[in-house]
Structure prediction request, 138 residues.
Amino acid sequence: MIHASQASFNVRATDDAVCVTCVRGNLIVKANDRIAKLNGGEEVLYASRQWSGIRPANLELATAWRAGVVVFHDLALSAVVHEINRYRPGEILITDSRLGTRRFSGFIQIKSPEAILAQLRSLGIRVTVLPAGIAIVS
Prediction:
């Protein structure tokens, strides 16, 4: 549960965690029998019974989606692909686990998630596009 009065915030739920970012104002986040009081520029990440504790937020990354952009900063390629797969039909698959750990920084327009494939090719990564939106990255 989130209690906010005159606050702007972002909630991002993924398969295994929830990240609540207070953009401005103040929030109270209650989950899993825990409470966090956030001020503008702070966030908390929680999953099941684990909490990250309150930490400084990167507001540009947390709110970029509002402008139709997804920004990646020094993420493992596997995490980037997981995020991109939320926005495109089909699926991008990484067949080389070492490639999945490669660090990636960049951005994509949410309305054009296929652009990531061209970005990967420009980095010398092999991309094979198959029917039904399947793309093999190796």
